Amino acid sequence: MSALDPFRLALRLRSTPDVGVFCSPGYNAPLFGPVPFVFSVHDLNHLDRPENSSLIKRVYYATVLKSACRRAAAILTVSNFSHQRIVDWSGVDGHKVFNVGNGVDQAYMPEGPAHSPGYDYLLMVGNRKLHKNELRVVAAFAKATLNPSLQLLFTGRSSPQLQLVIDQHRLSDRVHFTGFVQEADLPSLYRGAVALIFPSLYEGFGLPVVEAFACGTPVVTSSTTSLPEVAGGAALLVDPLSVDDLAHAMSRVVTDLALRGRLRAHGLQRAQAFRWPDVVARVRRVLSAVEQGCRTGQPGWPGDDARRVPLSSHPGRAH
């Protein structure tokens, strides 16, 4: 994405007069022009997390993106958490911000090959960004009461900062990295894991949680941002800032077979709320409402079924 994209997009739409409504699946929106548009804002990570922010990003959000939110016919997002953050930050009417959710690919299912590296492992799907909270994951793994044969497996490659923490806890023989993982190989990693450990400090959605659910893998995740909402009561929730809380959850999910069975069953059920055909249907209803508004001057907004992904009635810790 280039900072000039909104300007280029505006020029392109000006030269394409037959466009009725423009829809962008990303953060890009035309900088100016008469064409009604709908665009997506997944979250405000680049504002809310200092380690992911910069002066250029903050200026872009304050000028280009905030203006786009106010000019947009509708805004698509992926969680109720992000919905509220967008409304609070931009000042737009909440009725034009729609949580259409996210979907999980059909390749993520319990049936199929399972990764078998010769040891049992807890899986951490991340990208070495600090908000993924991987340094605390290593510290908690060192502190948890676990069989020494159990390993911790990270997707991707190590980083100097993460490797330093691994060495400090003398875990170099128990922490492993997969290197780059092809999308087609991810389901087998989930299936082979004892559990997914995903105590992120900030997520607009948290796709690994739903991918693990769909594969029948128990999940330990955070009690903050969008993650309790997405988990919907089907995961073990932890305070992501507490190494003790995370270590205790690791020990529980490894040793309590009955808990793992419940998490697996609840996760498989919860994954059904995140199907791509349902996401597509919500997006289409929003676009239809915008098109109607262009014709009549008054959008016929769809009801709550198009605005919010169904949630568990009691999201929280799984017991």
CATH top-level class of the largest domain: Alpha Beta
Please report the number of helical segments.
13
N-to-C series of helices and strands = HEEHHEHEEHEHEHEHEHEHHHH
Q: What is the percent of helical residues?
A: 40-55%
Report, as a whole number of angstroms, the end-to-end distance: 43 Å
Specify the overall morphology. Answer: elongated
**CATH topology descriptor of the largest domain:** Rossmann fold
Quick one: how many beta strands? 10
Beta fraction = 5-15%
Secondary-structure-derived class? alpha/beta
> How would you classify the quaternary structure?
single chain
Radius of gyration equals 21 Å
Low-confidence stretches: 304-319
CATH 2nd-level architecture of the largest domain: 3-Layer(aba) Sandwich
Can you give the mean pLDDT?
Answer: 90
Strand order of the largest sheet: 7-6-5-8-9-10
Largest sheet: 6 strands, parallel
> Which superfamily, in CATH terms, is the homologous superfamily of the largest domain?
Glycogen Phosphorylase B
Please give the domain count.
2
List keywords for this structure.
10 strands, Rossmann fold, 13 helices, disordered C terminus, elongated, alpha/beta, single chain, 2 domains, 4-stranded parallel β-sheet, 6-stranded parallel β-sheet, 319 residues
